[in-house]
Structures are given as C-alpha cells and as structure tokens.
C-alpha cells in the first residue's frame, strides 16, 4: 500500500471507505477494552500475593530494632524499610523517609509545604504573585494535576531523547525567580520511556537558577522497571543527589519512589530522599499531620522483597510478563502503520508506556473513535499541562493491564482509528 500522503483523493477516499467498514465490524463486536492507565495486570499482581502472608502472628510484627509495628511510632520508617527504599532511590538510608501508600501524596505534600512555609528559610512560595513550574512534555498527567490544582503556572518544555531540552530549561530558570520547580521522571519516563543522560542530570544540578529555592522533583517511579533481562541492556541513571552535591547545590532535589508497580498499587509503600537539611525540615513539618505510617506494610515489603537483589529478581518476573505486551505493541503498530506514514512511536526499554505521536490534529479524533468502538485510551492532551496538546498529536498507550489477546484486539482497533483520522485529515 502507498503512504497515505502519496495517494490521490480518489484512492484515499476508497481507502477511507474500506477502513470505515472495518471499523463498523469492530464496533459491532461490542468490545470493552482498556489501554488507558498504567496498571499492572492481574498476572503481575499475583506475583506479590505471598506478601500478604508475611505477617501472621504477634511475633511477626516485631521489627529488627524491637519496634512493635502494631503501634504508633517511628515516623520516618523502620530501618530495614529505609534500607530497602534507599536501593530504589539510589541513596543512603539516613536520607530516606518511608511514607504511606502513595509517592504522589508525598509529591503533592512537598509542593504544599513549600507553598505554605517556603523551604530552608526561603519565602513561602504562596507569597509570590504567582509561581511557575517547568513541565517536560509529553509528561505524567497526575504531576500536572498537582501543580494545576495549586494554581501554579506550568511551562511546557520539550522532551528530547536524552531528557528535557536543557537549553530551554536553563534559559527559563536563569531569568525568573518565580520559577520554582520542575517535574522529572528521569528513568523510563512516563510516557516517553526516556532515561535522562548524564549530561542532562549534570546540567539540571549545575544550572544557575534565579530562585535559590528551586527544586527538582525527581520522581523515580520506574527505577527498577527494566524490560530487558540483561543488565548491559538496562538504562543507568546518574544520581541527582551526587550531581547536586558536586555542583554545590546539595538541597536542590527531592527524590521520590514507591513500590506501586513493584507489588500492589495503592497498597505499597512510598519514600522520599533528600539532603540532610531537607529531610530534617520535612520530618518536622510531617510530624504535625501524621504520627506514623503503616509499619506493618513496611515489614511485609521488606520480608517479601528483602534487598536490592530480591527486588531485581522480583522485577524480572514482571518483565517476563510485560515484554510480550510491549513487543506486541511494536509489531502491531509497525505492521499497521509504518507504510501509512505520518506516525511515530517509542520503543521503550523500561517503564509502563508507549508514547504515540499521530499526525498533527488527529489525536482527539483517534481517541474518540477508539472509545466509540469500545477501546478506552488515555484522553488526548493528557500528557500536556492543562490537558492541552497544541499539536493534538500525542497519545499515551498503556499496554500492561489487558491480557495479550485483548491487547491485540485493542491495538487492531487503535490502528484502524489512526488510519481513519489521518485519511479524514488529508481529505478535509
Ligand atoms: N509517578 C509516576 C511517574 C507514575 O507513573 C505513577 C503511577 N502511574 C505514580 C507516580 C504514582 O505513584 P504512587 O502510586 O506511588 O502514588
């Protein structure tokens, strides 16, 4: 088949007619398929079922330092849980606070604290007429939801294959002291699957910022989520803490991680790591609103995952389940669309998503068509601040939740919708 752009109008119209028939057949099946959210499949959740049996007696509730985890206390986390989460955060246990079931909550609370109190003696951000935030795009919709909810002005900056466009980031932070932060998913990013290069990490750590209380929100949600089984093929990330210390900006970052996509989303444990001064401040403020987090769950996680090696072995089991799904996405998109032209997509080495760029002006139409045929996708625009993709192009594909046979069907529908939207655009 010729590329759509090479067809004359009559050829393209007859192709569109054919596609609409194919689409009607999909619709008639009454499908109900979902490629919207980055959720593990039931098969992946089963991997963590033994976690629930790690505590079954009073004796099991005692931590290594003798703490009875059934009771209040130990706000910043059990020593063994700090050690475990430190491996995910690539940091020292003493710089870690173990939180509750959501790293997103830790992030939202960190923004709120800076707004209300400033940080390390700086003016509370809420006292500025307005503050701004750098949002690499495409990015994670819930990050953008946090900053939007606080009325923070979001500035999109393009993601390149090595991380955000640093020339642009450096320019923005240098000139305006109301620019207070940046969202980063530095490894296997959501949705692009990008791991920041050493150069990008160093530039973030060293760049001159007009705001001396500028903070990098380093959400390492996919730090151990490799798809490749061999270490040599797995991405490595330079430690932002080390880079910031070397650059004499030791307080510039907050690191976040959780076990949401390691064990049980919504029933895992989260953690924040930061410089000693930041950690002391966070603990002080945190202590006013929480007495202690769920230490029994911390114990369960330590006993189940054990240490960095145990974590890696567990993640390999996830990768074995996920790899065929990502391969399927790559194959179906290549077979369905490479000859049609106009579209690009990522081939991630880790994480949970494929980032798909449709021809400009087509994304909303594609997602709408898919929905009407029973395939739910993440809303078009969701990967941009304010849900506004100025190109109406990017769509996040989340292939992890459906079983393979459902994923194949959903991708067939998706490919058909992409072709319809593109043909309609060219004929308009
Ligand atoms: N950060 C990123 C980049 C994510 O993709 C997700 C889950 N989709 C989260 C955070 C949410 O993490 P948690 O469950 O720990 O709040």
From TrEMBL:
SUPFAM superfamilies: PLP-dependent transferases. Residues 2-29 form a coiled coil. It comes from the Bacteria. The keyword Transferase applies. One of its GO terms (molecular function) is L-aspartate:2-oxoglutarate aminotransferase activity. Pfam families: Asp_aminotransf (PF12897). Gene3D superfamilies: Aspartate Aminotransferase, domain 1, Type I PLP-dependent aspartate aminotransferase-like (Major domain). Keywords: Aminotransferase, Coiled coil, Transferase. This is Aminotransferase class I/II-fold pyridoxal phosphate-dependent enzyme. It comes from Ellagibacter isourolithinifaciens.
């Amino acid at each position: 088949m010729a590329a759509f752009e090479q067809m004359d109008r009559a050829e393209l119209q007859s192709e569109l007619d054919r596609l609409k028939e194919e689409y009607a057949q999909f619709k008639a099946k009454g499908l109900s398929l979902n490629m919207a959210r980055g959720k593990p499949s039931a098969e992946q959740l089963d991997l963590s079922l033994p976690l629930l049996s790690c505590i079954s007696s009073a004796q099991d509730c005692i931590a290594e330092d003798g703490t009875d985890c059934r009771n209040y206390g130990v706000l910043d986390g059990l020593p063994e849980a700090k050690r475990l989460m430190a491996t995910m955060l690539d940091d020292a246990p003493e710089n870690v606070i173990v939180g509750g079931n959501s790293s997103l909550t830790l992030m939202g609370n960190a923004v709120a604290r800076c707004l209300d109190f400033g940080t390390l003696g700086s003016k509370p951000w809420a006292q500025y007429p307005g503050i701004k935030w750098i949002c690499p795009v495409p990015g994670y919709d819930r990050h953008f939801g946090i900053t939007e909810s606080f009325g923070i002005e979001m500035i999109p900056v393009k993601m390149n294959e090595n991380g955000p466009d640093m020339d642009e980031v450096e320019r923005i932070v240098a000139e305006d002291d109301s620019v207070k932060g940046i969202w980063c998913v530095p490894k296997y990013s959501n949705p692009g699957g990008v791991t920041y290069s050493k150069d990008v990490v160093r530039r973030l750590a060293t760049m001159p910022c007009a705001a001396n209380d500028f903070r990098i929100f380093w959400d390492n949600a996919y730090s151990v989520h490799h798809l490749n089984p061999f270490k040599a093929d797995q991405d490595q990330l330079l430690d932002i803490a080390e880079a910031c210390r070397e650059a004499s900006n030791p307080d510039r970052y907050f690191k976040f991680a959780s076990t949401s996509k390691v064990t049980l989303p919504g029933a895992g444990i989260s953690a924040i790591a930061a410089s000693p001064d930041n950690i002391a401040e966070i603990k002080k403020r945190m202590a006013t609103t929480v007495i202690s987090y769920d230490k029994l769950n911390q114990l369960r996680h330590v006993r189940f995952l054990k240490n960095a090696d145990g974590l890696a072995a567990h993640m390999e089991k996830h990768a074995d389940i996920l790899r065929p799904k990502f391969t399927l996405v790559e194959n179906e998109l290549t077979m369905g669309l490479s000859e049609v032209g106009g579209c690009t997509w990522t081939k991630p080495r880790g994480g949970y998503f494929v980032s798909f760029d449709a021809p400009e002006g087509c994304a909303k139409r594609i997602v709408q068509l898919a929905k009407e045929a029973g395939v739910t996708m993440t809303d078009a625009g969701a990967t941009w601040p304010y849900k506004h993709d100025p190109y109406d192009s990017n769509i996040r594909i989340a292939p992890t939740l459906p079983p393979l046979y459902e994923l194949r069907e959903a991708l067939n529908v998706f490919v058909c919708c992409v072709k319809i939207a593109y043909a309609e655009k060219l004929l308009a």
